[in-house]
């Protein structure tokens, strides 16, 4: 993998570049070659996007010694294992469809969610951390390396949420990584919730063109007033546009950033068919290249808005033809489930869904009809034109 330099974000928008210049930000642009599908795009170097150490922007959420810092706090290891003895921590995981909401406050109302409390003797112990601040819009990123070998039931999450503050109207943006049995690849899932719309899941799931257990790969969320973009290694994989159709279900309140690892045996791998096997523990997820670039806000200020020019400019980002083509190719080749094709769950499609000829490639359950599982011995690399090449 060709990793981007510290503080760089790929942007392919002449309007964005003009606005940055007009704002008197110090920028330099350069072309680069990359293994990702949009290598023809230029890279704008934003000085404020320097990576952070753990102490500079984060705090431990749970897990005690299952969170370990390395490289002077530049890399964080989260581990999942099974211990004997009484856990000092009491926490809950609440499941909404396929997405988890972590709460450290047992008194919080469940609001109809499926919640499980973990405490007592011989329970599993995961770990997690969160940003020290809440943010209203911005760019949030981490390079992640997932546990290898048998990892069925293991869930690693990198997400934004405000469920601890807005109990009944919370927002959420998710990357979730779902482990698998030996020889089967990890799956990646994204989801979007707004204003407590937990009864409506906007899940999408994907395979990957690489083995996420062999090296670090970058996962990023760009969240502005008008759009949400999910990236993997700077390749856009999903775009959510604010629209009248979505109404208040577009995330609009300040959120914290979270990273967790935990036991999702009851649902994560084939609906719970395969469980976590602790003879392979500890399962370790590694996080590095941590970026928090957004408006840090006071949650008690309900009239707040983002006034930072460098963050406001995220609204001006538009995908180039090359980037959009790369996203479409990724989705066509690697998307394995989409809520927009799930006629069983949604007999009436959600208003933002536009169904075209690609719907014929999906079952009524929203699952793909195509066999998109890949033998891990088979590797692919991306050409500069955005096509996958065997290697």
TrEMBL record:
UniProt feature, compositional bias: Basic residues = 371-382
Q: Which residues, if any, are the signal sequence?
A: 1-35
Extract the CDD domains matched here: GH16_XET
- Where does this polypeptide localize? Secreted, Cell wall; Secreted, Extracellular space, Apoplast
- Per the record, the coiled-coil ranges are none
Q: Where is the GH16 domain?
A: 69-287
The protein depicted here goes by the name Xyloglucan endotransglucosylase/hydrolase
């Amino acid at each position: 993998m060709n990793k981007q330099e510290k503080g760089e974000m790929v942007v392919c928008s002449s309007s964005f570049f003009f606005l940055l210049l007009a704002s008197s930000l110090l920028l330099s642009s350069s072309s680069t070659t990359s293994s990702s599908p949009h290598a023809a795009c230029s890279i704008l170097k934003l000085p404020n996007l320097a990576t952070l150490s753990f102490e500079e922007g984060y705090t431990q959420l749970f897990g005690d010694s299952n969170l370990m810092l390395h490289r002077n706090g530049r890399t964080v290891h989260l581990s999942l294992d099974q211990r004997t003895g009484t856990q000092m921590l009491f926490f809950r995981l609440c499941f909404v469809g396929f997405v988890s909401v972590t709460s450290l406050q047992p008194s919080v109302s469940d609001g109809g969610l499926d919640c499980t409390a973990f405490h007592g003797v011989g329970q599993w112990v995961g770990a997690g951390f969160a940003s020290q601040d809440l943010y209203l819009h911005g760019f949030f990123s981490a390079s992640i390396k997932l546990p290898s070998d048998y990892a069925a039931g293991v869930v690693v999450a990198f997400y934004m949420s405000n469920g601890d503050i807005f109990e009944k109207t919370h927002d959420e943006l998710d990357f979730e990584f779902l482990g698998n049995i030996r020889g089967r690849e990890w799956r990646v899932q994204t989801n979007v919730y707004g204003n407590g719309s937990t009864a409506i899941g906007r899940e999408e799931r994907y395979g990957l063109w690489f083995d996420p257990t062999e090296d670090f790969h970058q996962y990023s969320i760009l969240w502005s007033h008008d759009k949400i973009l999910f990236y993997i290694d700077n390749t856009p994989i999903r775009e959510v546009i604010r629209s009248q159709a979505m109404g208040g279900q577009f995330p609009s309140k300040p959120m914290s950033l979270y990273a967790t690892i935990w036991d999702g045996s009851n649902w994560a791998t084939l609906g719970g068919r395969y469980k976590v096997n602790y003879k392979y523990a500890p399962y370790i997820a590694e996080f590095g290249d941590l970026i928090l670039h957004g408006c840090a806000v006071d949650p008690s200020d309900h009239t707040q808005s983002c006034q930072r020019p460098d963050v406001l400019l995220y609204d001006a980002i538009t995908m180039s033809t090359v980037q959009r083509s790369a996203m479409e190719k990724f989705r066509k080749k690697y998307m394995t489930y989409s809520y927009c094709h799930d006629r069983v769950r949604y007999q009436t499609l959600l208003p933002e869904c536009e169904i075209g000829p690609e719907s014929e490639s999906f079952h009524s359950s929203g699952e793909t009809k195509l066999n998109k599982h890949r033998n891990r011995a088979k590797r692919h690399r991306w050409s500069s034109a955005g096509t996958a090449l065997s290697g």
